[in-house]
Amino acid sequence: xxxxxxxxxxxxxxxxxxxxxxxxxxxxxxxxxxxxxxxxxxxxxxxxxxxxxxxxxxxxxxxxxxxxxxxxxxxxxxxxxxxxxxxxxxxxxxxxxxxxxxxxxxxxxxxxxxxxxxxxxxxxxxxxx
Length: 129
Hints:
Layout: E1 3-6, H1 10-20, E2 26-29, H2 32-44, E3 52-55, H3 64-78, E4 85-90, H4 95-103, E5 108-111, H5 116-125
Parallel strand pairs: 1-2, 1-3, 3-4, 4-5
Helix pairs in contact: 2-3
């Protein structure tokens, strides 16, 4: 499972890396703009595309909601048959953000602080592990 962790907080990135590294390669991005570029590069360079993106909502330059919208639109334009799975990992647990995330086609939602058990449960539900 190839994973991209997108979070502007170093501690959150480190935590997710530690949990996910046993399941395959883990890359990081610090904002939505970097995430969009990383996903496109992995797909366009014929590398293995990402299987999972852990995406924070509140970030500088481009937030997670906007990044998700662009990633899904790019997948559609490229004719991607099976989209990567996206789990929003955020401190914003209010219903507005949850609904907005699923409307933009996220696959899961975890409110921070992320616990290992919740994350692994989501990965099992999504069929990634």
